[in-house]
Amino acid sequence: MAKETKTFREHLKEIAAILEWFDSQEELDVEEALQKVREAGKLIKASKERLAAVENEFKIIKKEVEG
Predict the structure, then answer these.
(1) How far is CA 24 from the centre of its chain?
(2) What digits encode the pLDDT tens for the residues 24-40?
(3) How far apart are CA 48 and CA 57, in angstroms?
């Protein structure tokens, strides 16, 4: 099965949704909060990886243009 590739923007939207969840809680369920933190951590890692890939693509294009 192919790995789903999300865009950087999609990652940010999901992270924002997690932050909104935390803001909306009057009483935190510790287990659910832990799951949300884990999910956010994975999203942050994926975002960093995507940014690094995009940066690399820009470097490649710059080298091609500069000849």
Answers:
(1) 21
(2) 999 999 999 999 999 99
(3) 14
